[in-house]
Structure formats: C-alpha cells, structure tokens
Design a protein that fits this description.
Length: 391
C-alpha cells in the first residue's frame, strides 16, 4: 500500500480506535485522529498536506460538514471517505457538496467497520491521483493550426452510436458523433477539440462534413434495405444562421433522404435565451418534417418550460439518472415520471447511458422502451457500423 497521510474524524472512541488501528496495519504513513471538527481542523492547519480524511458527520461542536467546508479553504486536503450513517437522500446531497468543495470523493466506509472496504477505498485514492489517469501526450489539447489542418485533410469523421429497443437490443436508429482521427494522437473525442472550434467559429465546418457523410451512409444503408433514423447534434450558435434550413433541405434532396428520418439533437440549456432567428429555425425544421430532440433532459434548469415553448418531438434523458438508479431512489422516480411525461406529450423517449444488464432490467420495469449506451454498442466508425447493421 502507498505511503499516505490520513486523518480520522470520529467522535465515538471505539469506532475511532478500530479505524486507526486498521489503517496502521494496511498502509504506511502517519494516521491522525480527531474527536471533533475543530480538533481535525487544527491538525490540518499544522500539517503540510493531508491525503485522505475519513469523516463522520454528526458530532457535537463543529460537525463533519463544517469541517469539510473549512478544510476546502486550506487547499491541504485531497480526498474524503464518509463514515457516517445518514439517510440516502442526505448522503447523496453530501457527496455532491464534497465534490463541489473540490475534494476527491472515494466512497463510504460505512458502519460497522469493514476492513476490506477500507483497503479498497485507499487503493482508489492512488488510482485517482492527478496525473496518473492519462499520459501527458493524451492530455495535451491540440492547437488551432492542428484543428484547421484536420478539417482541411478530412481527419474529422462521424462515429455512429446505435439507438436500440431496450427489450431485445434491436436496432432502431443511430446518433452521429464527431471524432478526430488525429495522425499522431489517434482517435480523439469532442472534449479535445469542440471548445476550440466553438471559440474560433469552426463548428459549421465540422457539422457540414459530418452531415454530408452521415446522409451518404443513410442512403447507402437504405439501398440495402436498412432504412434508419439518423440523429445529428446542432450547436446553438448554428441556429442563428439564416441559411441553415435551406442548406439542410438541399442536402436531403441531393442524397434522397426523407426529412422524417432525420432528427436534430439540441441541449435544452442552450435555448434558455435563444434569439428569434433560432426559434424560427426550429419551427422551419419541424415544418420540413425533421425531428427535434431535447438532449440531456434533466441536466439543466428549465426543461419543462422548454418542452412547453419549443417544438421538440423527442426527449433524451440524461444518463446521470441511470447511473444513480442503484443508490438514489429518487432517480427511479424521475425516470418513471419522464416516461409518463413523454407519453402524455406524444413524444418519443430515449434513455442515455445504459451500461449494465441490471440497469436494462430496471428501466424495462419503469416502462422505458428505447435506449443508447455501452451495454449495447459504443460509437463506431462507418465500416464497423455497416457490419453491425448486417448482423
């Protein structure tokens, strides 16, 4: 086990003794102990740094919540392990608070004490330390000249992630996603280039390249008897173009693709204060027969208002709710509510981020029908997707 500097904040003497004794057996490095938040804060102030705080929350005087808030101001504490018996809803909010304070949350130790669980959480700290997760070359963001060269050389290409029936994984449609086939760094996701493109007004160039290639593939598949719905992501900055819908209509005609088979996905947060031209383009796309999907539903703050005001035909529920199903009961309620909402509004619903069989089974019991996620397929290049369609 790595050398660690650990602080145990626990006001119950026996629990504190058990935890400290176990730590000294499974790791090297100093183990500090405190019976109150003020005592723990004093230890932190007198240390150069503290790798982990194993923290109870309920105690007299300065409690664990106040300690964490004050500890975040020192910048000396890196990771937190909770060791407190609290309601699951309160626990979830506390974890969110810990992360927003800038700490790395390792998990719950729980009570009674579990030595195996403690060892697992300590190892998790080592795996999540900054600088170990990715190589320096992978973390380097490309420069503008690299992006321009990539656009000129056709290095940006569409990757295709299937949308499937949740019950039997049968193929229903596909989302077109951007990837950069970089000559030195390999295939890069949007996190490596999207912000740079947005800043330098290059998103249109990327979109039209992906749209052109996506429509070509859609026609090719239709000619072979596989007519799928294709979804493309639109950025809010593109919606202010006065030629957007005209250009889309021209390409649909050129590739002989019916507009009803095309959906444009837009995040609801991007439309909170959209100008009139953006709203006009949304109306024109729907009049043309294209679909509009509210992407990442539930991740913003005005979802219901946007659903009432804007002509969406589809809801894509943010994958965060699926990931939280196992430990946050309210997520199940949100998913069930969204199923009922979509049906009452006459919209289709797609559940994002399905990764396990357990999630699939639970979603089926909640009434979900269509999904995307790594359980079914990851985004793939064109030749792989063609093979996927023929299976």
């Amino acid at each position: 086990m790595q050398h660690l500097n650990v602080l145990v904040l626990e006001d119950e003497p026996l629990q504190r003794l058990v935890t400290v004794t176990a730590l000294k057996k499974v790791m090297s490095g100093p183990v500090h102990q405190a019976a109150s938040g003020s005592e723990a804060l004093a230890l932190l102030e007198n240390s150069e740094k503290m790798d982990i705080a194993i923290c109870d929350l309920k105690m007299s005087g300065m409690d664990g919540l106040a300690f964490l808030r004050k500890a975040s101001q020192s910048g000396k504490l890196h990771s937190v392990i909770l060791c407190s018996q609290i309601d699951s809803i309160l626990r979830h909010t506390t974890v969110s608070m810990i992360k927003r304070l800038g700490f790395n949350f390792l998990g719950d130790l729980g009570k009674p004490f579990d030595l195996e669980r403690l060892t697992t959480l300590l190892k998790r700290h080592q795996a999540q330390r900054p600088g170990l997760s990715e190589a320096p070359e992978q973390s380097r963001l490309p420069a503008l000249k690299d992006v321009l060269r990539g656009l000129d050389n056709g290095e940006f290409e569409p990757y295709y992630q299937p949308k499937v029936a949740l019950e039997d994984a049968s193929l229903l449609g596909v989302e077109v996603l951007a990837r950069w086939n970089h000559p030195q760094l390999g295939v890069l996701p949007p996190s490596h280039f999207l912000c740079l493109m947005e800043h330098h007004h290059l998103l249109d160039r990327l979109f039209w390249q992906l749209f052109d290639q996506g429509l070509a593939l859609r026609r090719k598949l239709a000619e072979k008897g596989t007519a799928l719905g294709f979804s493309f992501n639109l950025h809010p900055s593109q919606l202010v173009s006065q030629t957007l819908t005209e250009s889309i209509a021209s390409l649909l005609t050129l590739f002989q693709v019916p507009s009803a088979s095309i959906t444009f996905e837009i995040t609801e947060t991007s439309l909170i204060s959209a100008p009139a031209i953006s709203l006009e383009n949304l109306v024109r796309l729907r009049v043309m027969g294209c679909g509009l999907a509210m992407d990442d539903f539930g991740a913003g703050y005005a979802s219901l208002d946007r659903l009432c005001e804007l002509p969406f035909s589809q809801i894509k529920l943010d994958g965060a709710f699926v990931r939280k199903m196992g430990h946050q009961p309210r997520s199940n309620a949100v998913i069930s509510y969204t199923v009922a909402l979509a049906r009452s509004l006459g919209m289709s619903l797609i559940i994002e981020g399905v990764e396990t069989r357990e999630q699939q089974e639970r979603l089926l019991t909640l009434g979900c029908e269509t999904a995307q996620g790594f359980l079914f397929a990851r985004p793939m290049p064109e030749n792989h997707f063609i093979a996927y369609c023929t299976r």
